[in-house]
Design goal:
Beta-Lactamase, elongated, alpha+beta, Rhopdopsin 7-helix transmembrane proteins, 3 domains, 11% strand, 3-stranded antiparallel beta sheet, 6-stranded antiparallel beta sheet
Length: 468
């Protein structure tokens, strides 16, 4: 197998993956605007990778130019599809957004049509003879410069729309949307790089096609995975924990980028074929991995707990956490949505492995219902206390550390058997009674901390403030 054929493999693999994703979406989901836009963009991406792959196998400069124009047509159509997709993906007001963007979309449609009509023009791409390298290469024409500028604008708009979608999503929705958004974001960042390269050097070189194929493969794998998933002590200085968490985040990002740059330079100066393209690809993948890691909810929660535990004389800022709980409870939504926000706050404070929130359904009959559970799994959502659970709850004046494995532990014998069964099933370590005055209205159960440390007195004091 020749080296040119090997260079073409990523492009053909990107072609197969993009077409497979387009078919998967159209086969599995209701066909709305967002699905058609996604499928069209993926088909166009496949078309672009087909042109890139065949350009490596071209027998003459003229054939290479022909297949570059095929890839160019795919890139033009792909940008239009992704723009519509970015406006409708995970948006409850997709129709209203499309209506508000109708003027901009009309302009984008006209520009797309004009660029397609001029794909075959030498004013877009043309062959040129290089005396320095004694060969023929492709140069960007005057119209091509305008196309590259318009393409840069479209990619920035797509990224801005994706950012808005991700920022406004809840934590659970972010977990579901993260991989498709970052996959598409990787494509946008790459094409921003490609167009910038074309504008700087006014020439197209085969390494761009190879890099395009590699980025497309990674992006398709990310998008496909997302679709398959679903789903300090003498001087007391007050420093906001959020500011310090953000500072540590920037420190991590900065260190990661410096390390990435060093490794990329090592690759660039090593005696490796295609070392320039490899170093660029390494930078793209490293930045993507860093962003994915730092946007993971569990990573951000762990970072916040690390800040509280190691940078402050007191483990918790009670005022801040009290406000967090108040905002979570006082916000609009159904009981389940409020419970979801409360569980996010609790995960940020303690990082328990399990959480459940129970509230009264019929206080007179001592029946209770579960409105929140983490992690989500099938479990009974109702409990009949037989008149004993509410009596026990109202007798509790503070959170209780539970020892389900030691029934003889002091205080454990008073837990009603029907409740003890639920506590054991949910791996409960701490029970926080919820009261409205003297009357019990529910309880929260917390499992072991993610780091395996026990709940200490500061934990109990903080949980007591939340049980009121």
């Amino acid at each position: 197998m020749s080296s040119q054929t090997l260079y073409a493999v990523p492009s053909f693999l990107g072609l197969v993956l993009s077409l497979a994703l387009a078919g998967l979406v159209l086969a599995r989901f209701q066909r709305t605007t967002v699905h058609w836009a996604f499928a069209a963009a993926m088909v166009a991406l496949g078309f672009a990778q087909l042109g890139n792959g065949l350009s490596f196998l071209a027998d003459s400069p003229e054939d290479m130019l022909r297949w570059r124009r095929v890839a160019l047509a795919g890139e033009i159509l792909m940008s239009a599809g992704w723009l519509v997709f970015s406006l409708t993906f995970a948006r409850s007001n997709a129709k209203a957004l499309l209506h508000a963007w109708r003027g901009s979309l009309a302009v984008a449609g006209l520009v797309t049509t004009a660029c397609l009509a001029l794909v075959g023009s030498d004013q877009m791409f043309a062959l040129a003879v290089s005396e320095e390298v004694e060969g023929v290469y492709l140069v960007l024409g005057p119209i091509g410069v305008g196309y590259a500028c318009a393409y840069l604008v479209s990619q920035v708009l797509i990224l801005a729309n994706l950012e808005q979608t991700f920022r406004k999503a809840t934590e659970i929705m972010r977990w579901r949307l993260k991989f498709p958004i970052f996959g598409l974001g990787l494509l946008c960042v790459y094409f921003i790089y490609q167009m910038t390269d074309l504008l700087l050097y006014r020439a197209w070189h085969p390494e761009i096609a190879w890099l395009s194929g590699m980025v497309s493969v990674v992006a398709c794998l990310l998008i496909g995975y997302g679709l398959m998933r679903r789903p300090l002590r003498d001087v007391q200085i007050y420093v906001s924990r959020r500011i310090l968490s953000g500072s540590l985040t920037f420190l991590i990002i900065g260190s990661g980028l410096v390390l990435t740059g060093l490794v990329a330079e090592i690759i660039r100066y090593a005696d490796i074929p295609g070392k320039v393209s490899l170093s660029i690809l390494f930078i793209f993948i490293s930045v993507l991995v860093l962003v994915l890691a730092l946007t993971a909810h569990n990573v951000r929660l762990a970072l916040g707990r690390f800040v509280e535990r190691h940078f402050f004389p007191h483990t918790y800022d009670y005022r801040v956490h009290w406000m967090e709980v108040t905002e979570a409870i006082g916000g609009p939504g159904t009981p389940e949505q409020i419970a979801e926000r409360v569980m996010q706050v609790l995960r940020g404070i303690w990082g328990p492995r399990t959480i459940s929130i129970w509230v009264t359904m019929d206080w007179e009959r001592d029946t209770w219902m579960r409105i929140g559970i983490y992690p989500v799994h099938e479990a009974p959502s109702r409990l009949d206390g037989t008149g004993r659970v509410k009596v026990w709850l109202e007798a509790q004046s503070a959170p209780l550390v539970v020892h389900t494995e030691s029934p003889d532990w002091p205080g454990q014998e008073r837990i009603p058997p029907v409740l003890s069964h639920f506590l054991q099933a949910e791996s409960t370590v701490l029970v926080i009674p919820l009261k409205a005055g003297p009357q019990a209205i529910g309880w929260i159960t917390l499992g072991p901390k993610s780091g395996g440390r026990p709940y200490d007195q500061q934990d109990l004091d903080l949980s007591r403030s939340k049980s009121c």
